[in-house]
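hey so u asked for the seq, here:
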Amino acid sequence: MPLPVELSEAIATYIERYRPNLVRRSEHPMAGNALWVSDGGRPVTAKGIGCILGTVTRRELGHSLNPHLFRKVVATELAIRDPKHVGIAQPLLGHADYRTTQQASNLGRAMDAAGQYQTLIGAMRRVEPTPAKRRSEAHQPRPSTSLEDRT
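ran it, structure tokens below
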């Protein structure tokens, strides 16, 4: 699956302009074919990427996201913001089985429904009954709750 043009251009710039400078910073170049290289010219490991991701997401979002959760957010956000195209999450994330993608999609739809319900309840709570409605409700008999009254 091709990357969006914006990402392709940014990665090409990194590879052509910045990565060579980073590799030269190491006395003993060891980056090899690693795409991501540290300030010291060494390959960034999977653990290192996880640490960077956690630091950046904590700074930007207020919560640290590990790589697995970050990937899960993709399918969840697609389900909420663009449900017609949620199917692209499977190849994008490399899921072998659609059920893995579907779990995140279902979570996204549930979260969206819960948010809409919460908004509706909040709006209902903010609506004050008019004085006339309060008076008419006060004079209406309340339904009985005991079993004896129902027979």
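The mean pLDDT is 78. The helical segments are 5-24, 46-61, 67-81, 89-93, 98-126, 131-138, 147-150.
lmk if thats what u needed
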